[in-house]
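the two lines:
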Amino acid sequence: MTETDIFGKKVPILIKNVRLNDKPTEIYLDGNGIIGAVGKAVKDHDARFIIDGEGAVALPGMVNMHTHSPMSLLRGYSDDMPLFEWLSTKIWPIEARLTESDIYWGAKLACLEMIRTGTTAFNDMYFMMNSIANAVDEAGIRACLSHCMIDNGDHAKFESECTVTEKTVAAIKARQNPRIMAGVSPHAVYTVSEEGLRWCAAFSEQENIPLHIHVDETDENPDCIKTHGMRVVPWLDHCGILSSRCIAAHCCWLDDDDISLFATRGVTAIHSPVSNMKLAVGRAFPYPKLKAAGVSVALGTDGASSNNDLDMFAEMKTAAILQKFIWNNPTIMPAGEVLAAASRNGAKALGLDAGVIAPGFFADIILVGKNPANVPDINSVSNAVYATGGLAVETTICDGVVLMHKGIIPDAEEILAKSEEVAFDLIRRATT
Amino acid sequence: MTETDIFGKKVPILIKNVRLNDKPTEIYLDGNGIIGAVGKAVKDHDARFIIDGEGAVALPGMVNMHTHSPMSLLRGYSDDMPLFEWLSTKIWPIEARLTESDIYWGAKLACLEMIRTGTTAFNDMYFMMNSIANAVDEAGIRACLSHCMIDNGDHAKFESECTVTEKTVAAIKARQNPRIMAGVSPHAVYTVSEEGLRWCAAFSEQENIPLHIHVDETDENPDCIKTHGMRVVPWLDHCGILSSRCIAAHCCWLDDDDISLFATRGVTAIHSPVSNMKLAVGRAFPYPKLKAAGVSVALGTDGASSNNDLDMFAEMKTAAILQKFIWNNPTIMPAGEVLAAASRNGAKALGLDAGVIAPGFFADIILVGKNPANVPDINSVSNAVYATGGLAVETTICDGVVLMHKGIIPDAEEILAKSEEVAFDLIRRATT
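prediction for all of em together
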């Protein structure tokens, strides 16, 4: 099998001469999407394709735990503005014009960037999720997709949002694509009613699917106390939201009691440092306290209109240095913890046997090539976290299928051209 | 002339079909290292080589205003440690073993990474600068090189350090290489005596060369007040250090009076956000106040052992988002200001007619190719600052000479292999 033939095929693959945890290693992918063997000289079994990993480092595929994939269309459309002015004068007017085709091409662009920068799974919250599912299906990566439910306290809207969520979940399940999962996403406490939150909690339990919600990105507590007589996290708990299925994005304004409750309920907290810093949300994610309490922490880029990329390598570095800086201790969030937050911890929250390169886990693997920014290779985890942007990824494999090899993704040119055209057309429609 | 012939040749070049400030543009380089013309359809004059910039964005070459280039050898050697323990148990013992050959290969690796990530000039402070000058000469980029002078209050050491500085400056000037400038570098107030500081100030004035110094990276003020009866910045002024030749690195702990004095004296302040955050220096560079006072601000990566890369694109993004976050205002340091800090402002401080793509300026230009992280190209400056790592740079031109084209740097493989070998040999020598 030649190199151009390998794309998109699910066949046994042997990765030779690669480095894993600073040791030379071979990795055998069994042809069924699972890692069959990892070791010094594994038997090549029935490998149909051999990847020469000479000079490269193997890492688990990144798991991006909070994003809004179609917003890649809006990259660079507006920056450097106050949060509410940015949302109300720039983002919302554009979002109101989004068509199914825009969503599809935005998600295609996002998946392309994720494959290019080594992400093999993502947790998405947006609208028209079926269009996103089509893009994910074609891209070959994994995603948990949930309709972003907003009722603003309007009962009729609540009912229609429940219907959309039910239909979205049913449609995704009906695909029977093991790479595409459904989730449920109440947007936030300030946009979803008590009945909305309670319904989402019950539906997530009934369907046994993740619940993805924004929590304390900015300080939502004063308003929540005024309206509901308690802080955001106890209010969410009161509504049944907090459980081990709950994936809470941002979490910048948690207090000690909130953190204890997260630990008790098994919530996963998502750190999105780049977006938090760019939007100036006012406080940093309390990583040391969450870690001390035993709360699982994962990373997410947020959408490309507030980041402005989906590069989990950049997110790892920013998380590590922000945590050190803001808590004034250079030993906080060392490289190994950051890498786990960018891979295994997110996979666990989604219930995926991924994020670890070991037999029995999903064959979601990336190879980072040698380049002038990661030589010498004294410590490959340090280099991955602190010295290597996602463009250093050369090979991306998801579900045992090669999606990028030697930097080549077969349909990249077409997706870039078409998504750029769609983005400019959207802006033209929204501003004229 | 074919594509492989172009490397290292100083000939007239026409860059066609490129985008500059979101408009299609042609750029003519005159064969003498100067930009001859910029416009919609410039005459191709006598161009010996045509670069098709289709899909690419032209930017001025980045100017890295604070680094220690040979420390690239120590990338990933130690991270996540308290500052003093890191220096005393890891960095200093290794630095004590550095040979001329180590310095040379460290600087070769650093220059290679800078060319790969779009930096065309850097301001370096280290030891054995002649070895670094050899590396810079061969690499083809620009540098201002200064011996890092430390006397620790010892008069004999002061005298020997003055001699080293004088010899270094004389040797660099004797090269008559217009790309390589000499500077003078007293390390910091806590490592250089009053006589050392006064001598550096006078020597910098006499030779009319830049003075590069660490200022308030951590809070140096309590000790300075105890020893000299005043804060760091007035003490530096008392010793004659502050002038328009002064390039002050870090500047995290400046107060309002310090900032006023910087403005009065014309000092350039260098922001190194990644290193400051990773080492947890305790406070952030006061960009809004420096800007309000009219102090020129430029960016620097610091050395690769505290960053851990020399990627000015990552430095731009981190500067922009740190400033927004820490001063709680998303409008601070918008993309255009960040790009100027990474290019024109540094060039000005070094007295270089660079950092701007316009006729008469040095032909120091980079081309950023289209990739999944910078599409759509709605705003190319936003994309450069917020969405594009330095590995997206495809072409690097310095002094009118092509150093990288389509991601290819002719001697990259050899430099990576040799510098990695040198790094491991250095660690072996230092730890056995």
